[in-house]
C-alpha cells in the first residue's frame, strides 16, 4: 500500500449513510410509506430486482450479515412483506419471496428513491455520477475481497 496523507473516506461514507438514512426515513414517512423502514427497504429493493433468492445471496446483495438479515426477515414476514420457501431441489436452502403486499409497494418506494437520488446527486453532472459510483464500486470490491480473506 502506498503512503498517502490521512484520509477521511471511511468516516465520510459513515456520515453519508447516517444522514442519508434519516432523510430517507423522513421521505418514506412523507410519502405515507409506513409498511417498512429504510433498512427493510434495502432488502425489498433487492427482492424487487431479483425475487425468490436464497438467504445467502440476499445477504451478499444487501451487505447484511446473515444473522442480522434473518432477524429482519422474521419481522418482515410477520408484517406480511416476505415469505420463506424451501427450495424444491435442495430443502436445506430457503428462498425469500415477496408477498403481493410488498410487490404493491414497489412504485411508491421507487418514487422516494428517485427523490433521494436527486438529493444525493444535486449539482453533479452525469459524468461525475458515473465516475463517483465507479469509485465506490472499487472501494466495495476492496472491502469484499478483504472480508473473504479474514
Automatic annotation (TrEMBL):
GO terms for molecular function: DNA binding; DNA-binding transcription factor activity. Keywords: DNA-binding, Transcription, Transcription regulation. InterPro entries: ArsR-like_HTH, HTH_MarR-typ, Tscrpt_reg_MarR-type_CS, WH-like_DNA-bd_sf, WH_DNA-bd_sf. Gene3D superfamilies: Winged helix-like DNA-binding domain superfamily/Winged helix DNA-binding domain. It comes from Lachnoclostridium phytofermentans (strain ATCC 700394 / DSM 18823 / ISDg) (Clostridium phytofermentans). Transmembrane segments: none annotated. Residues 1-141 form the HTH marR-type domain. It comes from the Bacteria. The keyword RNA-binding does not apply. This is Transcriptional regulator, MarR family. SUPFAM superfamilies: Winged helix' DNA-binding domain.
